[in-house]
Amino acid sequence: MAPPVLQNGGFILGLIGAASLIAATAMNKWSVKDRQGDVVTSVYTYKGLWQDCETASSGFTECRPLYGLLGFSGTFQAVRALMIVGVVLSVIGAFISVFSLTCLTMNTMSESSKAKMSLTAGIMFLIAGVCGIAGASVYANQIVATFRVTSYNNYEGGMMGMEGGMGMPGMGGGIPRYTFGPALFIAWIGGSVLIIGGILKTLAFREMVKDEKMHYPGVAYKPQANARSDASDHHSVGAKKEHNYV
Fold this sequence. Notes:
Elements: H1 3-26, E1 31-33, E2 43-47, E3 51-56, E4 61-65, H2 74-99, H3 111-163, E5 178-180, H4 182-215, H5 224-245
Antiparallel strand pairs: 1-2, 1-5, 2-3, 3-4
Helix pairs in contact: 1-2, 1-3, 1-4, 2-3, 3-4
């Protein structure tokens, strides 16, 4: 595949992936309240990396910022760090990728420099994609673990309520349980797109280096001493011919 196609494809996918990671990191719906088997409630809660929000039936939404570092678990802080690193690397990679495009003509930049910049942008896209997928996966794993615990507790509380003549399974405990929010899927998709874009950028680097070697194969030359000896031999042969004519 031609280097310009790989370059442009990796650049476009890198932009899409970077935008997806930014949107997912800023969204508040990383985990949403599970409404399955629940009665109609007037409050809908969802959580993000930076805020916990509640929406009433009237449409009024109130969010509580999650300030501080010591009040949260190390896993939660790791998810934040992974997403921030992914966003920063993807943005820097997209910025570098602009200058590495072969369609842009710059007098002071050689093809080898563009190839190296393409490789750098590709590596940044790959690392950013892995960070985004890892951050979303760690958060999803915590949701699954919490979902199982709350489901078990609610089931036990519901059975106790039924024995007393009221309640139903899954509702007696009253503990809210959360499931995957849309931000997780956006982070997974964005990370995957970044990885594909990074692969295309690295393949473009390989093709650009290959083309450069074909255009500049290397020229063999004779040393100056050999050139002088050839000239002296030619001069001596000419002198012998003139002597014979005489």
